[in-house]
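wait is this the right file?? whatever heres the structure
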């Protein structure tokens, strides 16, 4: 069996039915390793549901998701308990920030060392030199090293989002998923987020849901357009922007 696939994730014929309503219908796609892959489309298209499927928060009605990690056999994620997904190297950032506002930036990072498993342990344990170095280098990557002793609650909205991304990276995941990371950000912050993600993708594959098309243009390697639970088209940003159907159902409507 070939272990190292060019693709880190294979989404095979995923359908999700909620009480007779299909949120996703026969969605099939692959995510390239070390790429930034966007899912875009109008509200209700099924984007968040797809991320819920990948991290096993939601069970599909049919179909499978297969993860091809670097040093292990392929792993079928569908049907796995949610916590095991994280152990296997997949992180997810939700729309609502989940940093501890009364802790410092650095302490938030230290807590992430436990992966949310044993918070009490990680509060009591002093990180090793190696762990401290790792935390410092991640904070530098997201531009927060100078603020490591700041209370997280004192950070600007964008900085909190970057901290959360850094917290996800503490566990050295092979894949992270970001649901609307630029929501509530101004243009300069959004641009900076893009530059941060471009650095991160050298170590980690990134799946992003986002409406801001400038952001998509800035960093997307591949774009999948979802509409009413189905894949409308997939390809480069340029091809998505030029696609007449995509323009009609999504881009033409402006931001929702
Ligand atoms: N748990 C659920 N139960 C019933 N319907 C749901 C549930 N989650 C999502 N939906 C429906 O599935 C569709 C897709 O939702 P969602 O994935 O959140 O879309 P998007 O993220 O693209 O805006 C929507 O019509 C939504 O109302
Ligand atoms: Mg959504």
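ok assuming it is, sequence goes like this
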């Amino acid at each position: 069996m070939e272990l190292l696939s060019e693709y880190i994730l294979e989404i095979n014929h995923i359908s999700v039915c909620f009480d007779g309503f299909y949120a996703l219908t026969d969605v099939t796609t692959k995510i390239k390793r070390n790429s930034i892959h966007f899912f875009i489309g109008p509200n209700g298209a099924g984007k968040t549901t797809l991320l819920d499927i990948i991290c096993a928060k939601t069970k599909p009605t049919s179909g499978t998701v297969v993860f091809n990690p670097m040093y292990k056999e392929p792993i079928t994620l569908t049907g796995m308990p949610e916590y095991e997904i994280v152990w296997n190297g997949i992180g997810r950032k939700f729309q609502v920030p989940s940093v501890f506002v009364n802790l410092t930036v650095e302490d938030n990072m230290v807590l992430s060392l436990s992966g949310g498993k044993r918070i009490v342990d990680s509060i009591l344990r002093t990180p090793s030199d190696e762990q401290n170095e790792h935390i410092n280098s991640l904070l530098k990557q997201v531009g927060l090293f100078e603020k490591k002793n700041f209370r997280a609650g004192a950070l600007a909205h964008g900085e909190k989002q970057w901290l959360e991304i850094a917290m996800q990276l503490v566990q050295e995941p092979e894949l992270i998923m970001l649901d609307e990371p630029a929501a509530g950000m101004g243009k300069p912050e959004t641009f900076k987020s893009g530059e941060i993600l471009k650095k991160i993708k050298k170590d980690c594959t990134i799946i992003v849901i986002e409406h801001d098309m400038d952001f998509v243009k800035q960093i997307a390697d591949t774009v999948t357009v979802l509409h009413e639970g189905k894949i409308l088209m997939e390809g480069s940003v340029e091809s998505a922007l030029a696609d007449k159907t995509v323009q009609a159902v999504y881009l033409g409507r402006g931001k929702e």
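The pocket of adenosine-5'-diphosphate (ligand 1) is lined by residues 18, 23, 41, 43-49 (CB under 6 Å). so i think its the right one actually
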